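for the recovery benchmark. tokens below, seq after
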């Protein structure tokens, strides 16, 4: 068993962070449509979280934003002329599409890819499959740059395999690590990979939500497992509760989170909960590990309270003493039921004995909490040495990024600002400077 650590790679919030309400099924995003956003505050909140966790000894990296606006997408659907003319026409004729072209949603890197560490894969490399995110227009164009970025960070093919996105069809709807959980005795030991799906494309008789879309298919999860060379004995597929999806639980990470041998989940997270978890228990027994389940009853915390507070969209982190810290948004402490539950949780003598709270209001208003902002990657010492070092969080990098944000980001962005050619130029200038700062001179294809 190799020595390994879990790194959290947080997405850096982009300069075009705005509230367009593009994500039907994501209640927070939809409820704040057309509000005025504060990109500068959003980026600084995210950076503060990264710095605080890195200072506590948790391994931390950063992933850069994507090119915005997406002129390639706008031109591909018929907007022509100069950049200024494209923006003007799109704003007049299709403002929602213009907002899609400006979307800063790649900051939620839990959706960027699914990751399997080298301890789990047949060829002993860490595997990434970039998510196609084809359920939403504004996200469906992300995979090209995501693949480019991941291949730049994890460039050494002796240690890493970065797979392009699955076919962009509903049958293979894939939303990345937001629907994937790895459980294990320790990060460097072989683990069990749990894929959670919302529907089955080729079995219409299987239950599915009626109000909101199920974004992850069983077929996509199975394809990712094949690409990564996972053992059938240590791979488990579990269906989300369709009724819970219809209450705004658009990804599994809105209703469950796992770490090491602990699964923290809501009573209504899974379809047929009791039988659903039995294969997981059996698979873990095969790696000499017993599941420690923390089940939150609906009588203690309703699904509505879980969605409002993003209790489960938290980070569950292993501490050196063997206990765990739960990284929560401050909304959890503002919700009476959730706050009461968390106080009992930390005093219960169970694995979670500490809460770390962050102000992520800008992200939360757009539908993403602490877990959305990060991609979990377990790496051995050799793999860390083989990756691009410029994205690892240090005090120097934190200071440089804060200065960069202060120089380039607006503190107020309204929907009408998206039509301004000057703003588009601002964003491009910022990203050109960032690519150099992170040591990626060829990261972007403007």
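predicted aa per position
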């Amino acid at each position: 068993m190799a020595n390994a650590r879990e790194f959290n790679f947080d997405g850096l919030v982009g300069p075009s962070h705005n509230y367009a309400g593009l994500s039907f099924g994501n209640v927070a995003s939809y409820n704040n449509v057309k509000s005025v956003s504060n990109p500068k505050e959003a980026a600084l909140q995210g950076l503060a979280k990264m710095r605080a966790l890195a200072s506590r000894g948790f391994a931390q990296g950063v992933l850069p934003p994507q090119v915005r606006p997406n002129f390639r997408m706008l031109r591909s659907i018929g907007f022509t002329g100069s950049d200024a003319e494209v923006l003007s026409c799109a704003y007049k004729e299709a403002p929602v599409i213009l907002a899609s072209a400006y979307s800063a949603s790649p900051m939620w890197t839990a959706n960027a890819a699914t990751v399997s560490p080298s301890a789990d894969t047949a060829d002993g490399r860490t595997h990434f499959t970039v998510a196609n995110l084809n359920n939403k227009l504004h996200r469906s164009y992300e995979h090209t740059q995501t693949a480019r970025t991941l291949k730049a960070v994890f460039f050494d093919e002796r240690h890493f395999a970065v797979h392009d996105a699955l076919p962009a069809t509903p049958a293979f709807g894939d939303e990345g690590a937001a629907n994937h959980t790895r459980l294990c005795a320790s990060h460097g030991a072989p683990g069990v990979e749990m894929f959670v799906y919302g529907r089955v494309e080729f079995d219409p008789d299987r239950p599915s939500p009626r109000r909101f879309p199920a974004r992850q298919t069983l077929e996509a999860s199975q394809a990712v497992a094949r690409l990564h060379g996972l053992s059938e004995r240590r791979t488990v597929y579990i269906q989300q509760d369709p009724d819970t999806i219809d209450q705004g639980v658009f990804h599994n990470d809105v209703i469950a989170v796992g770490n090491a041998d602990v699964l923290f989940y809501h009573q209504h997270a899974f379809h047929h909960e009791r039988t659903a978890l039995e294969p997981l228990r059996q698979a873990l027994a095969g790696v000499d590990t017993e599941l420690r389940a923390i089940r939150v009853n609906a009588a203690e915390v309703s699904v509505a309270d879980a969605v409002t507070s993003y209790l489960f969209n938290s980070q569950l982190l292993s501490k050196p003493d063997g206990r765990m810290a739960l990284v929560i948004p401050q909304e959890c402490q503002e919700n009476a039921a959730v706050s009461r539950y968390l106080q009992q949780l930390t005093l219960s003598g169970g694995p979670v004995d500490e809460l770390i709270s962050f102000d992520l209001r800008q992200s939360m208003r757009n539908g993403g909490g602490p877990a959305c902002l990060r991609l979990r990657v377990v790496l051995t010492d050799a793999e860390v040495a083989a990756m691009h070092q410029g994205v690892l969080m240090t005090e120097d990098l934190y200071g440089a990024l804060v200065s960069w944000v202060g120089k380039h980001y607006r503190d107020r962005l309204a929907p009408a600002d998206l039509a301004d050619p000057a703003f588009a130029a601002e964003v491009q200038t910022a990203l050109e400077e960032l690519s150099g700062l992170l040591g990626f001179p060829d990261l972007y294809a403007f």
